[in-house]
Amino acid sequence: MLNFVNILVQVLVIAIIARALLSWFNLRPDNPLVRALYDVTEPILSPLRRIIPRVGMLDISPIVAILLLQALQQVLTSVIVR
What are the distances in angstroms from CA 52 to CA 12, 25, 31, 58, 63? Predict the structure, then answer.
């Protein structure tokens, strides 16, 4: 169970980082890679965007999402290890 939690968090973090990096390029929304990344990350990022305002032109919701995922990973790890 512990390995599953760790792998899941790492995959989500990588997907969020990849989505943030791909946002710098003009890729078509129907691109399969872009679509897959949006499908995986949008349920995490969308609620955060409603709460966290933009800082100028910078969307900091991916950073907050990564920090929250890592905090959740720590909590789940401590619960599972007990």
Answer: 19, 24, 28, 11, 11
**In this structure, are residues 12 and 69 in contact, taking their beta carbons and an 8 Å threshold?**
yes
Please give the backbone phi and psi of residue 29, each rounded to the nearest 5 degrees, phi first: -65, -20
What is the per-residue pLDDT across 17-64, written as a single tens digit (0 to 9) for each?
Answer: 999 999 888 889 899 999 999 999 999 999 999 999 999 989 999 999
- The answer to whether residues 6 and 70 touch, using CB atoms and an 8 Å cutoff, is no
Residue indicated by tokens 């599953």: 4
Pinpoint the alpha helices (H) of the chain: 2-22, 32-51, 61-81
Q: Alpha-carbon distance 33 to 48, whole Å? A: 22
